[in-house]
Amino acid sequence: MSIRRYEALFKGLVQHASDVVLILESDGRVRFCGPSARSLLGYAPEEIEGRDFFSLVGEGFDTEQRAMFSSNLVAEHPTFMAGFPMRKADGTELPVEAAASNYLRNPEIVGVIMTLRDVSRQKKAEERALFYEYFDPLTRLPNRESFVRDVDRNVSIAMNRGRVFGVMALGLDRFKMVNDMYGTKTGDEVLKSVAGALRSSFRNDDVVSRYRGDKFLALFPDIKSQDHIKEIIAKARAAFIDPIPIGLGQKLNLSASMGVAFFPNDGKDAAELVRNAETALYMAKESGRDGYRLFDARLNGEIIERQRIESDLGQAIGERRFEPFFQPKVDRSGFIVGAEALVRWRMPNGETKNPSEFIDVAERSGNIDRIGSMIIMKTCELAASWSAAGLPDIPISINLSPRQFGQEFLVDDITAIIESTGVDPRRLEFEITESGIMTNERESIRKLLELKALGAAISIDDFGTGYSSFSKLKDYPVDTVKMDKSFIDPLPHDKKASIIASAIVDMAHTLSFSVVAEGVETLDQMAFLDTIFCDQYQGYLFSRPVPQDEFRRMLAAGAALLPSGA
Ligand code: C2E
Ligand code: CA
Ligand code: CA
Prior knowledge:
Number of domains: 3
Shape: elongated
Bound molecules: ligand C2E, calcium ion
CATH class of the largest domain: Alpha Beta
Number of strands: 21
């Protein structure tokens, strides 16, 4: 077969091939070029034919490949196969996979057949895979994996140069609410805006990454001073100064909490530093929004303890291990005129735990809702059963924590409990702290009015410890104030405390609230409170909180509680 005929046949074969087919002579000159060169490389085949193949390759064709390639041009059985870029007519590059397939030996032509396959799509996919491996697709910030690599790299740099660097965990405050209120699409937009704001707030060599959900991580490669730390915190805060637009002309004010850990003090590797920054963040969140905490090794112990209590609480709730104890309130002659239900956690060994050991955790974790409703239910049942047994219908008070009081369906739930237990709602009193009311004042007043409409009374717990004053209090539908134990403790010898206590009683009476003194422990205190016309007393002087059976016996005895030690 003559070379012409051979070429004609060959052209026919390659006409429809999508790969660029070349015949290369032993010196690298292109003897023949298939038509796909036009679509893939932007050259007419004639423009390529006669040219040196090496003049057509892109930057990535290295000397090693070149040597391999050259030796294949004269090899009996070419085996060359490699990926490299070709330079296109417009100067851009096309990644190809080249394979030498056959060796032609003909009187007129000696050379190899080389096919170039366009692998730009695979390349893109690879790049995309690489992108997803190291970047968060939503915010386009580096993801946790890539952040961890950066931190580890910084560990070795910092170690060599004796540097300190910081890792910050940053969490948006109440982001869940954004998602709940505006939907996750808006939530995602907000995250993107926050990512952008953080990115532009920090220096270029600070790394900002999204860790997951509404959590971000940042790395500050070289911390020089205490002021530098303050500056970093200020910059993180600055990212939240401008409200974030969420469409339809609406804007959202967001804030964030932060925790920071430092190399080398707070961790020797990325895992430890990230974990400790998160621990500090967790503590920052616990102590209110918009704050920051620097890691402190003691935090870990605290958190572990809390998490233990939290998980124990979960189980105890399932087993209904909470019950009310009752502490009587007495009048000036010691007669029981009321009682307060105080929750106790009954342990499997029969002992009880006081609220100081768990109420805080329950409040923060939200468990208080279920514990609280258990106590309301049980207290109402007991009150109803005491009435049914003919015992005096004294008022029974129930504590509502701020979070409980904030529950949307609180009044509905209480109404249902009143109905199912048959308790007389006029016997019920709810104790709420000032801060519980002030968190959402209008809503609170509405709820207080609803509770009063049921027939229940309202008292302000721990009065005097919050921010509110009598001027505020007069707007609240309240019946009683409970003067906090801290005012009672210094009585009666502390002159200033005596004046304050008597002012509180006077003003409460002016507004026609009655006053209960909390934590009365001595006869002297009692005697003084009597002179300033305090209405009721509650405290260890008369009785500690006691289990239901014991309280029932006290009620049945009907006698005045003689001050213990009197
Ligand atoms: P609180 O409402 O101020 O309750 C008064 C606390 O003072 C009770 O502590 C009571 O035992 C204690 N106390 C009473 N008299 C004296 C005294 O003379 N001396 C001393 N040192 N202490 C006295 P307790 O039972 O440990 O409760 C602590 C707090 O836990 C309560 O403070 C209340 O805020 C909360 N709590 C208790 N039960 C419940 C509940 O069922 N629901 C909710 N939400 N919170 C509760
Ligand atoms: Ca109380
Ligand atoms: Ca109190």
